Amino acid sequence: RRAAPPPAEPEAGPDVSRILVRMPHGQRITRRWHKAALVQLLFDWVHSVDAEGGHLGDVGLVSHYPRRAFSEEDGALTLEEAGLHPEATLFVQDLHSEEEEEEEAED
To answer: Tens digits of per-residue pLDDT, 75-99?
Structure first.
């Protein structure tokens, strides 16, 4: 999966969201986005940052408070519609490894 590079990072301001993402291996990445940016751009960004590692398959983005989980099906939401404005901290959730764990638990 090759993600396109994200659009230019906007200057801080009232219409700009600050998003911090914690990658599965502990790396933290932070970036500013316009509040009208689509959630899909966050997924593309996460995959582009992980391109060196290349370990991510299907992922979700999760906020702990309030508890929300986003999948790529939510990609058409704006950051504001998704409740990620003016700032949010998200954790990358590897959906593939969770499915494997669930299958092992069922055995």
So the answer is: 999 999 999 999 999 999 988 765 5
Report CA-CA distances (Å) from 67 to 27, 62, 83.
21, 7, 11
Across the beta sheet with 28-34, the strand order is: 28-34, 16-22, 87-94, 59-64, 67-70
- Burial zone of 12 (CB within 10 Å; 0-12 exposed, 13-18 middle, 19+ buried): exposed
Query: How many residues make up the chain in this entry?
Result: 107
Phi, psi of 62 (to 5 degrees): -125, 135
Tell me the pTM: 0.84
Distance, in Å, from the CA atom of 56 to the CA atom of 71, rounded to the nearest integer, reads 14
Task: Work out the burial of residue 32: count CB atoms within 10 Å of its CB; fewer than 13 is exposed, 13-18 middle, 19 or more buried.
Answer: middle
